[in-house]
Amino acid sequence: MPRNLITCMLMLSAAAFLAACQPDTVESVVPPEQRIEQRWAYLIEHDFASAWEMHSPGFKEMTPLSVFMVDMARRPIRVLEAELISVECEGEVCDARINLTYQVTTGPTGVSRMRVPTEIEERWILHDGQWWYLRG
Question: Looking at the whole model, is its pTM more than 0.85?
Answer without folding.
Answer: no
